[in-house]
Amino acid sequence: MPKRILFFLLSTLLSLTAYSQFNSLEQEEVGLATRKKPVSFSHQPFLLLKITPSAFLGRDNVFQYGVELAPPFGKFSFGFDYGKGKGSGSLNKEHKAAHPEQETKIIRGEIRGYFSDWYPFYALDKKPFGRYYSLEYVQKDISYTSIPDILLYTGMTVPAATEVNVAYQERALHVKFGNHFIITRWFFIDAFAGIGIGQYDAKPAEFEYEQVTNKFSFKRPVREFNTKGLFLSKTAGFRLCLPI
User: Could you tell me which of 196, 180, 195, 200 has the C-alpha nearest to residue 242?
Assistant: First the structure.
């Protein structure tokens, strides 16, 4: 009789232990599933309003804003950005001191394709959620003043007596990859990076000078007076997005 009671008590204890372990595992799985549950949307956003803080932190301190249109048909979305800045507001002290009068305007246009695998966004034409690739065109127009060097007959150069207004332009084509980090249904962070080919052209606005064509540059081109050339263009940054 005591052996049967002991066996019963041991069996009960083992059963309770197993149930407790199973229950704790089940609760842990439910907790993980709850934490991994994506943000829910009442509708698929078709328009994203964007501000680009990283553009303001650059050399030209451009205040850039734009939109992304994600129509409910097709596989692509379309983005447009515009920015404007002034040298006197640059965070780069050397640039601010050298060209406080500089004015910068920038436009960006891109075509995006998304390849999101976020559940349940794969059923929503994969946009504008998750990861994407894009083809981007960028044009930057800059106006500033420069003091050109005058070549003397002795072979020496001296600074000119007057400044020359320079119209500087950069155009670039980028292949980009990025990701929308969905914080809430009303707030995305769009982080991106890309690379491409750029072309720059710096010429005076008032006079005609023979421009110097520089070799292909792998670094950011120096904005020298009256030069032009090609360069390896790189881009990276982040945008704050309001989905509508």
Answer: 180
**Beta carbons of 80 and 70 less than 8 angstroms apart:** no
Upper half-sphere CA count for residue 141 (Cβ side, 13 Å): 8
Select from 101, 233, 120, 236 the least CA-distant residue to 177: 236
Least confident of 120-124, 196-200, 211-215: 120-124
List of residues 6+ apart from 43 with CB closer than 8 A = none
Task: Measure the CA–CA gap between 95 and 60, rounded to whole angstroms.
Answer: 8
Helices (H), the chain: 2-36, 53-56, 93-98
Q: What is the pLDDT of residues 14-37, one digit of tens each?
A: 554 555 555 555 555 545 444 556
**pTM, two decimal places:** 0.75
Q: Is there a contact between 230 and 198 (Cβ–Cβ < 8 Å)?
A: yes
Contact 236, 190 (CB under 8 A): no
pLDDT per position as a tens digit, 87-135: 888 877 777 777 788 899 999 999 999 988 777 777 777 899 989 999 9
- Token pair 């998304």: residue: 114
Q: What are residue 143's DSSP bridge partners?
A: 103, 167
Q: Averaged over 55-67, what is the pLDDT?
A: 89
- Residues 6+ positions from 103 with CB-CB distance below 8 Å: 84, 85, 86, 87, 142, 143, 144
Burial degree of 211 (CB within 10 A; 0-12, 13-18, 19+): middle
- Give ∠ CA 91-96-100 in degrees, rounded to 5: 130
